[in-house]
Amino acid sequence: MADSSRKRVVVLAMDGSKESDNALDFYMKSIYKDIDEVILVHCVQQGPHSVGSIWMPLDPHVIARAIQDEEKKGTEICTKLKTLLPIYKSGGRITVTRVVGGEPGPTIVQAAEECGASMIIVGSRGLGTIRRTILGSVSDYILHHARVPVLVCR
Predict the structure, then answer these.
(1) CATH classification of the domain holding 137
(2) Mean pLDDT of residues grouped by 10 in the chain (154 residues)?
(3) Contact predicate 123/130, CB 8 Å
(4) Where does the UspA domain lie (predicted)?
(5) Does 6 reside within a domain?
(6) Which residues, listed in sequence order, are joined to residue 122 by a DSSP beta bridge?
(7) What does pTM read for this prediction?
(8) What total of structural domains would you count in the chain?
(9) Angle between the N-to-C axes of helices 138-145 and 104-114, in degrees from 0 to 180, rounded to the nearest 10
């Protein structure tokens, strides 16, 4: 039988979407315990997606501007998350972490491993099979590559 008084480290993948906000809300209202350490992880993705197609030749200034825009968006998302936290009146520890990396799926899985997460929670946009196959799915990647339980919230 599991010891329910043991501290859990829970990673919530946050991308600024309403789905990730709903996942945070669900966790805080339904699963959260005062002894939990909660880490809200936002991955600032820097790669071909930021500037269009990987096949498109681009001016270095366009690439630099796209990276700056992603950084700004990441900062705004993390600031928004920090302002939301007081409404949950948690007794545990909640931190917001901004990770700069490549693809969000592998970056979130790595961040969870590095902090010793007990669980990962992620929102899902509910892409259909074809769109998920073409575009990829962060939640699908995390579900299949994480070494800890994953809760996907719709």
Answers:
(1) 3.40.50.620
(2) 71 87 89 87 66 57 70 73 69 72 86 94 72 63 93 88
(3) no
(4) 9-154
(5) no
(6) 13, 152
(7) 0.74
(8) 1
(9) 40
